[in-house]
Amino acid sequence: MQSGDDDAMMARIARRDAVAFSHVVDLHAERLHRIAWRMIGDAAEAEDVAQEALLRLWSQAGGWKTGRSGIAAWLTRVAMNLCLDRLRRRRFASDEPVPERADESPAADALLDAERLRAQAVAALGALSERHRAAIVLTYYEELPNHAAATAMDMNLKAFESLLLRARTAMREALAARGLVSLEHAA
């Protein structure tokens, strides 16, 4: 959708047009769930985040400012903030280490190796700070252009690019610590 289309859609939602809201849900719910799942790592919490972001769109539709970045960027920003809030609450909820997950992959050797690599890459991503993880998820998993990711994180483009550079370095170091890349590539 174009910015004008988003503005028109939000005007309909502000008038409590359920068909318009349903259309927005169909367009964005799956992506919001993916972002939340990658940030939080829990499918049920990811569903809660996606629903909460969409609920906020419905309840705050009357305050929509036309000509802004659009519905997708607004929802992404809300979902990222909800994820960061949940991650911060977890950090203070317990000082116990996160338990290891059991390997649930099929018995075939190739599939086991692939799962082991994937789990270590996910663990490396999980070891990053919340902001670094958000930059990596938006850029590489959601394939947002830098300007869209910067908007979603409520940052200017230069600050986001600097954050992304630091996030890449931290990710390379986390991968090297797990033996997934050589130390020469991590430097």
Labels describing this entry:
single chain, 187 residues, mainly alpha, Rna Polymerase Sigma Factor, Chain: A, Arc Repressor Mutant, subunit A, 2 domains, globular
From the coordinates shown, what is the CATH architecture of the largest domain? Answer: Orthogonal Bundle
Question: Element order, helices and strands?
Answer: HHHHHHHHH
Question: Would you state the CATH class of the largest domain?
Answer: Mainly Alpha
Please report which band the strand proportion falls in: under 5%, 5-15%, 15-25%, 25-35%, 35-45% or over 45%. under 5%
Q: Please give the count of helices.
A: 9
* Sheet having the most strands: none
Helix content: over 70%
Q: Count the E strands.
A: 0
Unreliable stretches: none
What Rg is obtained from the alpha carbons, in whole angstroms? 19 Å
Would you mind describing this structure in some detail?
The protein is mostly helical and 187 residues long. The chain has 2 domains: 1-99, RNA polymerase sigma factor, region 2, helix turn helix motif (Rna Polymerase Sigma Factor, Chain: A), CATH 1.10.1740; 106-187, Arc Repressor Mutant, subunit A (Orthogonal Bundle), CATH 1.10.10. Helix content is 73%, strand content 0%. The protein has helices at residues 3-14, 18-40, 43-59, 71-93, 109-126, 130-141, 146-152, 157-177, 183-186. GO terms for molecular function: DNA binding; sigma factor activity.
